[in-house]
């Protein structure tokens, strides 16, 4: 049979993919390309979906489609067939061949049903894991699986079944005494049951005798009771009053022996038992009293271990915390040291701020001045002083900027005298030449103009100077007012800072910088004062802490050591305190135990007193019941006897009342009867006989009671019939175990014989075919594969070209791993041919089976497969492209490449 084409509509990563498969197909593709999917698709084509559940089927496409595939087949006879499989809610498959159509559901193809799926995967569909499996198991197991499982798919290996039958038979019975088996356990139980049967039979015989004796006694008792009843009836009817009289006489005799019945009644039921109980209780109480006394002595010793110093130390509440106080003192000392360093830093800062703000060195008296200063007020006054100074300077500047007014300049006298003098000269010269008079007139006008200008300029200048003087006087007043305000502001700052040695410049012109320096100085002073106060507080706390620790140590006689060392003594005191606490706690526990023991002693004393009183009371009651001299023990025995007589007397009186219920006063009835009662020899004989009967009835009843008790105990013993039944059951089980052992042995021999005949029928053909394939795949290096006989399951051997036999066992070092793989492949191919004999030859699927073979073995193996390709379709899978192409060349075909699955969502 050959798969010509495979249509994968939806199978794993393949969607709508069609593959044409030749007689020898080589499928090449990288990892994850779908080789494993195609490998399982071919198997599914032949045998159906597994598992047949869409949710669990591993090759259900993630694209939402249901698994579906089709294949065209060419059968060995030349006929064609077609199969289509789908995994819907349930598997569905259609098979068409020779014009016939058949619904397969999930059954194998009709042409492949001679080999089941499991056997197909083990023989025809080989992967690299199948080849490696040979390395890890004995080859006899492989031979068993391949050659011993060629029957039905449901049939287990015959040798495995035979071994299980052998083990089961051994569990039923075995000749030797090794191990446990059912027959031996049943035999042991049988021995125990037979021992119990022997004991039960002996007891049963004893019970039979007792039962016979009881039957005899019961008859005797019945006879005696009947005789006594008859006799009593005759006596009652003939001498009722006489009997009453005799009963009264007997009661009187008992009363006479009793003495004082009330005194005897006060003795109780059994004074001897009461006396023994009192003595026993006395012994117990005395023993307990001795134990309690010893315990009291021990607890007192524990209590007295505590000294007054221990109690004083434990009572001192400060002693418990002395170690913590010492540690706290150390912490306070450390804090004092830190406060001292902080005080030094604050003083250094104060000096630095004082140097920046004061003209002299710092004195702590300056702090009082700084404490009186309010920073806001200082800043306000300094700002006011600075503002006033600035205003005064502004006024002074404006005063200085006030200049005399610039008026028109008066012409110098030369401008007046020179023109006049020249004009006079020209006038004089005009006598000589009259045009000069014109020039002289012009110069006269010039001189006149110059005089007029000087008059005007003088008037304007005087007015300007008057205005200037008035403005200057006003600005001088403003300057004086600003100066006054500046002095007042400076005075306010000076009064506020009075007592501080300020620099003259700062005192004369205080400003914001002075306020800042003074405020910084004030802050430094406050920090210094705080650090100084903190240091003083730390020193005071350290003194108090150390004084407290030293006082506690001194109270308990410990030397605190040097002034600065408070570590050793507090630890010693703490150790003493722990020890004292343990002793005090032990003493308190002893005190509590002592109180309990004391109370117990009191209780015991009370019990002893009560017991002594009870003994005295019992002795007094004995003395009252048995007056007179005599040893105490004899009198106690007499008292016990009288108590028993009293009980008898009271019982007889009750019996008399029961026998004569109609008689209200028995003595009156006897008195009324008088002395004419019949008392003959016959009556005496009847009385004697009655007494004898009563004694004999009592003895018989006592013996019957004893026999009833013995019989009741005897019934608790196992019944002989039950034991015999169990023994019979055990014998039947032992017989069944033997028969089961025989059946299992017969079955084991039948299975082994059937397996031997099956192997004889099939192994020669398989080994012959395997030898031919082995010669092909090894290139003639190994020519024969055979099974060694007489070795249990047999050992698989190979014969090389030189005739040497070599073992194929996986643990043997005679063959290499590659050669064993070749033997394994040849054996598989032979089994496949054997299984296909008379049937369709199924395709052979090989996935990377040659990957671990060297090149020589690969070529030899492929040549062997090439000769097989004409009879059987081969599909080889590999992820190695070069090796795939080489396989395709050797097999005379083209490789089928799988670049990868189609796009899948």
UniProtKB/TrEMBL annotation:
It comes from Thiohalorhabdus denitrificans. This is Uncharacterized protein YhaN. Residues 1-206 form the YhaN AAA domain. Residues 182-211, 289-308, 381-403, 466-487 are annotated as: Disordered. InterPro entries: P-loop_NTPase, YhaN_AAA. The chain crosses the membrane at residues 413-433, 439-456. Keywords: Coiled coil, Membrane, Transmembrane, Transmembrane helix. The lineage of its organism: Bacteria, Pseudomonadati, Pseudomonadota, Gammaproteobacteria, Thiohalorhabdales. It comes from the Bacteria. Residues 577-607, 683-747 form a coiled coil. Residues 390-403 have a biased composition (Basic and acidic residues).
């Amino acid at each position: 049979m050959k798969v010509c084409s495979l249509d994968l509509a939806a199978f794993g990563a393949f969607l709508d993919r069609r593959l044409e498969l030749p007689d020898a197909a080589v499928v090449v593709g990288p990892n994850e390309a779908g080789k494993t999917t195609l490998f399982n698709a071919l198997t599914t084509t032949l045998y159906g979906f597994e598992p047949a559940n869409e949710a669990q089927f591993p090759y259900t496409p993630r694209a939402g489609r249901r698994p579906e595939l089709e294949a065209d087949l060419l059968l060995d006879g030349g006929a064609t067939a077609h199969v289509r499989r789908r995994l819907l809610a349930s598997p569905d498959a259609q098979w068409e061949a020779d014009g016939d159509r058949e619904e397969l559901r999930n059954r194998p193809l009709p042409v492949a049903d001679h080999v089941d799926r499991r056997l197909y995967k083990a023989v025809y569909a080989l992967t690299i894991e199948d080849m490696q499996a040979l390395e890890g198991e004995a080859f006899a197991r492989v031979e068993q699986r391949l050659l011993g499982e060629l029957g039905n798919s449901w049939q287990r290996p015959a040798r495995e079944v035979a071994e299980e039958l052998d083990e089961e038979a051994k569990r039923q019975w075995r000749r030797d005494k090794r191990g446990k088996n059912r027959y031996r356990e049943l035999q042991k139980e049988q021995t125990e049951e037979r021992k119990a049967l022997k004991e039960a039979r002996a007891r049963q015989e004893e019970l039979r005798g007792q039962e016979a004796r009881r039957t005899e006694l019961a008859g005797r008792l019945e006879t005696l009771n009947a005789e006594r009843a008859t006799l009593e009836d005759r006596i009652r009817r003939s001498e009722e009053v006489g009997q009453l009289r005799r009963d009264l006489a007997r009661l009187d005799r008992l009363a006479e022996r009793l003495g004082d019945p009330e005194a005897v009644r006060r003795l109780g039921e059994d004074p001897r038992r009461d006396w023994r109980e009192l003595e026993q209780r006395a012994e117990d109480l005395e023993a307990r009293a001795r134990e309690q006394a010893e315990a009291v002595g021990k607890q007192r010793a524990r209590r007295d271990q505590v000294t007054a110093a221990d109690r004083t130390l434990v009572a001192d509440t400060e002693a418990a915390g002395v170690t913590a106080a010492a540690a706290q003192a150390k912490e306070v000392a450390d804090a004092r040291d830190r406060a001292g360093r902080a005080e030094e830093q604050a003083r250094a800062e104060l000096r630095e701020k004082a140097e920046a703000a004061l003209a002299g060195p710092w004195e702590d008296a300056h702090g009082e001045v700084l404490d009186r200063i309010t920073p806001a007020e200082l800043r306000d006054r300094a700002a006011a002083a600075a503002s006033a100074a600035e205003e005064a300077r502004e006024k002074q500047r404006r005063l200085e900027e006030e200049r005399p007014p610039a008026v028109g300049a008066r012409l110098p006298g030369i401008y007046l005298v020179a023109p006049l003098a020249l004009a006079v000269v020209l006038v004089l010269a005009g006598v000589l030449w009259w045009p000069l008079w014109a020039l002289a007139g012009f110069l006269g006008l010039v001189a006149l103009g110059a005089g007029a200008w000087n008059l005007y300029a003088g008037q304007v200048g005087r007015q300007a100077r008057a205005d200037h003087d008035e403005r200057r006087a006003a600005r001088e007043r403003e300057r004086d007012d600003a100066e006054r305000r500046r002095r007042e502001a400076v005075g306010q700052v000076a009064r506020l800072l009075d007592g501080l040695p300020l620099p003259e410049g700062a005192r004369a012109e205080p400003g914001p910088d002075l306020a800042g320096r003074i405020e910084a100085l004030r802050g430094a002073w406050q920090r210094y004062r705080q650090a100084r106060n903190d240091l003083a507080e730390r020193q005071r706390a350290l003194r108090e802490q150390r004084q407290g620790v030293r006082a506690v140590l001194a109270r308990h006689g410990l030397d605190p050591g040097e002034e600065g060392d408070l570590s050793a003594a507090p630890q010693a005191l703490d150790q003493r305190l722990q020890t004292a606490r343990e002793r005090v706690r032990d003493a308190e526990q002893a005190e509590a135990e002592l109180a309990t023991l004391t109370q117990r002693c009191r209780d015991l004393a009370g019990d002893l007193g009560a017991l002594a009183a009870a003994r005295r009371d019992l002795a007094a009651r004995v003395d009252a019941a048995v007056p007179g001299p005599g040893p105490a023990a004899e009198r106690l025995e007499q008292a016990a006897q009288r108590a028993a007589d009293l009980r008898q007397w009271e019982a007889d009186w009750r019996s008399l009342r029961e026998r004569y219920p109609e008689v209200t006063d028995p003595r009156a009835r006897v008195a009324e009867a008088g002395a004419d009662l019949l008392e003959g020899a016959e009556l005496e004989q009847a009385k004697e006989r009655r007494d004898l009967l009563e004694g004999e009835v009592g003895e018989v009843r006592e013996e019957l009671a004893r026999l009833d008790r013995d019989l009741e105990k005897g019934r608790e013993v196992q019944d002989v019939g039950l034991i015999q039944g169990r023994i019979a059951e055990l014998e039947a089980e032992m017989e069944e175990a033997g028969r089961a052992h025989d059946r299992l042995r017969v079955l084991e021999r039948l299975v082994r014989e059937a397996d031997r005949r099956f192997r004889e029928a099939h192994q020669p053909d398989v080994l012959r075919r395997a030898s031919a394939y082995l010669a092909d795949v090894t290139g003639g290096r190994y020519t024969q594969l055979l099974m060694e006989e007489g070795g249990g399951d047999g050992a698989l051997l190979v014969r090389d070209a030189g005739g040497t036999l070599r073992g194929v066992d996986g643990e043997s070092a005679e063959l290499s791993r590659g050669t064993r793989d070749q033997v394994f492949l040849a054996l598989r191919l032979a089994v496949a041919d054997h299984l296909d004999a008379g049937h369709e030859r199924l395709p052979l699927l090989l996935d990377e089976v040659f990957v671990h073979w060297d090149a020589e073995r690969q070529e030899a193996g492929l040549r062997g497969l090439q000769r097989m390709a004409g009879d059987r379709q081969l599909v080889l899978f590999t992820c190695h492209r070069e090796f795939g192409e080489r396989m395709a060349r050797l097999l005379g075909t083209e490789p089928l490449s799988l670049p990868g699955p189609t796009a899948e969502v």
